[in-house]
Amino acid sequence: MTYHSPLTAYLAIIALLTGAAGLSAQTEVMGWGNITGVRTDGQLVAFEASYRIVDKDLNILSATGKERQFRPEYIRSGQTQTVKTAIEQVRIEQTVEDRGKGIADVSVFICSDTTRKSVAAYLCIDLPAAGYKDAAIMVGKEQLRPARSTGRSDAATSPPPARSDAVTSAPPVSVRKPMPQPAAGTTLSVKGEGNELQLTFSRRIIAFVKEEGGHTTIYIHLLGDNLKKGQSAKLHYTLKASAEIDRRPVEIAIDRRRPGRPFAGLGGNFRLQNPQTDPQVIDYCLANLRVAWGRVEMPWRNWHPDENADPLAEARAGRLDPRVNDAMKMAQRLAAIGMPVIVSAWFPPEWAIAGGSSSYKNQGGVRAFRLDPSKKEAICKSLAGYLVHLKQAYGVEAALYSFNESDLGIDVLHTPEEHAGFIKELGAYTASRGLSVKMLLGDNSDATTFDFILPALNDPDAHKYIGAISFHSWRGCDDETLKAWGEAARKLNVPLIIGEGSTDAAAWRYPQIFKESAFAFYEINLYTRICAISQPLSILQWQLTSDYSLLWGAGVFGSEGPLRPTQRFWNLKQISETPGQSFALPFACEGKDVNCAAFGNIARGKYAVHIVNNGASRRVTVKGLPPSVSGIKIYVTNSEAGMEEIKEVENRQGAISFEMPPISFITLLADEEPMSNHK
Description:
By secondary structure, the protein is an alpha+beta fold. The protein is about 20% helix and about 35% strand.
């Protein structure tokens, strides 16, 4: 495939048709309504604007946030982004229109569908300590001074719901007096360390400031003090954001002498859910991405619905459920192109559920079925029978097996101790059936639930059955947690696999967000951090089907026009170009707002350096590659380019310098052989 001027022309046409925002200014609006900043010249002027329902003591009853609302609606039309949502039976509609460099118009309509005494609604603006330390905050000509609280009241830092489609409210938070002093006016200004915000309102507003969890929050009153059903309000404001643009050069030094853990490359999930749109997306992804690992579903309840039947005998007699056949054929297709396959089960059959499925309540989409402990042998026999048939009839020996997100119960729930016991039980049983499949330790719903794997991690009797460790990346995590997962894999000397890769498990509810540059950027930032810190064998994208699709058009999420790649696809295309059989390479990075990961197939002299430039355009120099590298290709993906090649590159004996475009994902491929031989 070629990634030059024809694609640029195509993307330019698409940008005109869709009204996609350019690189010079972009307001980042999340699918649930929060504004996380405004980019100017590519640099993010960071803050977070959210909506909160609070009581008379300013305890937070609910707040807009990731996975905290039921089915928010996100729509982009040209330069305008609209979100419709609700919290605590209060409806909110927000429109944000980009108007130029660092300027956006924001309109808010809020309406209460309930009556509640001593409850009010606020627009809140969180100012992170970085960039706003000792900021001067003015309403009109009056400076706001915070009331300092030892109670924590930042909904954004509250632990998110664990389930991928759960809906909860922020927990009530204790706030201690003194109460903040409000001020009124039609303007609000914030002057921090290099960052400035100016809000001009259509009407007089009342605002106050509080210190919360180590940062400052501005509260702007919208509705209530005593909410009444049918009560509504409107607010319009113009937001201007500016910052001192950082264009200082960046230096990345690769250390080829200390190769780390192997990196097989990009992987993907292939759980079949949409028979009308899945096939074309799967075909496109497999034809255009180098996919190193695959994960497929075991439709367990379809495989063995009748406890008294022998599912393996039924399958051999030709009486195989169509969904089971489709899942096994998917595994066969992946294995035929040399891909190791993970098999994971979601829904158990009725007979295997302790107490029957009707005894479980659906809590935010979570059923969390417990398996019947009296049927352990039957359960192991049923699962192993599936894997035996997959091998004998379809020629696929599963590399790894797991229950999906059993820490949370999607849809089988285990305690940490039960998880360790199951690994030993099924591991021993499959070995007795002559299967080489190993168990996947974890396959957790999030990296933050690390403790779930500890009993098995510390049980020597379980180790021989564990083939890899896995977590899902839905809500991200801090560097220390990522290090812990990498260290756990090293302790057992098995690979770490990101079984489901992405950032927002609820995004299927507002699928237009999949086209947004900000969504793509958060995702690729997370992946580069994971690769650099945890050193996984593979990140398996959720999914390479039409579910959470990397492609748009041809009916995917109801979209029209031809099937075409989004920015997310090009990001993963660049990741997939990492040479096979590479090692993670340590590096040092001198430069702000840059994430990177480096890989090398040292034996073949092939290298890849992935760089996320989170700021303005600036020059980067990559050092430490072999002095003899001559075949150098550098690709860039952002809102205006899909894997376009950067031509102006300076190579001084392995020190490679070039100009990084703003807010872009950049991949450097270096080859000691001619690049025409690059695979």
